[in-house]
Amino acid sequence: MAAPRTDDRRRRPRRLNYERRITLLAVFAGVPGVATALILLWAGDFSTRTRWTFAILLLVAWWVLLTALRERIIRPLQTLANLLSALLEGDYSMRPTSGPTDDALGLAFREVQALGQTLREQRLGALEATALLRKVMEEIDVAVFTFDHERRLRLVNRAGERVLATPAERLLGRTADELGLAEALGGVDRGRDGEGGRLLDATFPGRAGRWEVRTGRFRQGGLPHTLLVLTDLSRTLREEERQAWQRLVRVLGHEINNSLAPIKSIAASLRGLLGRDPRPDDLDEDLTRGLDVIAARTDALSRFMNAYARLARLPPPRPVPLSIDELIRRVASLETRMTVEVAPGPDLTVHADADQLEQLLINLIKNAVDASLETDGRVWIGWTLGAAGQIEVFVEDEGPGLPESGNLFVPFFTTKPNGTGIGLVLCRQIAEAHGGALELGDRAEGRGCRAVLRLPVGEGVGVAAGK
After folding, report:
1. Which H or E element spans position 214?
2. Backbone angles phi, psi at 397, to 5 degrees
């Protein structure tokens, strides 16, 4: 036997809607009064015509009151429903008619109106923010791509169109593999979301070069999406390279001319002496003195070029455990022109290249002593454990302070008569090769300079408490 259907064995009674319930309640509320009035009307000493006339008038009045009561209750609710429906559809132009604001119904209309105003302002702000974002996206010179969970392109800006040499209409909907962007999206596939960026050498239909790739994840419509940002570094690198070559050629030309100019002048003078007839009596002395000057300038130029070659051939560091206390005291003892004071510090061990770090500190101390000799000041060196576990080695002097120049770390720039201009550059290269940094500044407590070498804890550089 077939099982009974669900709707046959469980039939729910059909409920009256809200409007009908209100009407029935109004009818039931008026029945006692109307019935009482009719009973009194028929019990009184009235004619039949009068009874029927008043009965009809009573029933008509009852019906009018029922209709008015229904309208007063149902119509405002319908108006509120229409207002909320308009807000739901994004239509904020509808406004309720003015009414009392000191009762419950007026308060409801006022709150709905305030809600509509708030939603309108929020929507307007969202539209303006979206328009601004779209304008920025179109104008920035950074290629931006958005892919959905199927790796299909959903958004691209003008820079992205230029990179792929294709309008957006022909790009949208295509996969990353079809667009040649699969390698750029590899960071997301390998779970490297949120990384600080990576470099990629790639050739696209519209442009080739070195790119900085940044990826991220977000959700839209409940589905995961991927954001891909490509920044062309080629032009920036070429501009930096061009400026570096200009600075290098300018400094090299200046130094070489400083040596060649006196050599050329002295050579011309000696040639003139040899061409005299009769020759002067002190010709041999003049020739010797001139050749000595030529030899001295040639040696200086040779030292300068050797210093440049040394700067260009700085080998990578070979870290070994070093005691900061022993290293600093040994370096301080190498200075013989004046006593370098050593400020005591914590017992620390750093992993660094001993020769390079020693050369760095020697250069800093040498510069500090050169400055302090001009003012008969002091020089001291010390170390401490700074923020985030960094080792900070400082060298301070009481010299005249730093010169007003932003070229302290420019290769071959020097303020010393016999300087090569590579000391500070070499020091900074050594510091950065160890994952650290070198900073120069004037002392806060008085006249002089303060140099700070910071060596962070990280790959290849470690800091630990000494034994």
Report:
1. strand 208-220
2. -140, 170
3-class state of residue 355 by DSSP:
helix
- Beta carbons of 223 and 147 less than 8 angstroms apart: no
Strand partners, 439: 452
Dist. CA 157–CA 302, nearest whole Å:
55
- Distance (Å, rounded) from C-alpha 210 to C-alpha 202? 6
Nearest by Cα to 446 from 345, 372, 391, 344: 372
Can you tell me the distance from the alpha carbon of 18 to that of 23, in angstroms, rounded to the nearest whole number?
Answer: 9
Please give the Cα distance from 446 to 169 (Å, whole number). Answer: 66
Give per-residue burial for 95-115: e unless 16+ CB within 10 Å, then b. Answer: ebeeeeeeeebeeebeebeee
Spatial separation of the C-alpha atoms in residues 160 and 165, rounded to whole Å: 8
24-65: per-residue pLDDT in tens? 777 777 778 778 877 877 777 777 788 788 888 888 888 888
Extract long-range pairs of 381-384: CB within 8 Å, 24+ residues apart.
381/328, 381/331, 381/332, 381/340, 381/341, 381/342, 381/343, 382/328, 382/342, 382/343, 382/344, 382/345, 383/324, 383/328, 383/345, 383/346, 383/348, 384/345, 384/346
Q: What is the dihedral of CA 232, 233, 234, 240, to 10 degrees?
A: 150
pTM, two decimal places: 0.43
84 Cβ contact partners less than 8 Å away, ≥ 6 residues apart: 112
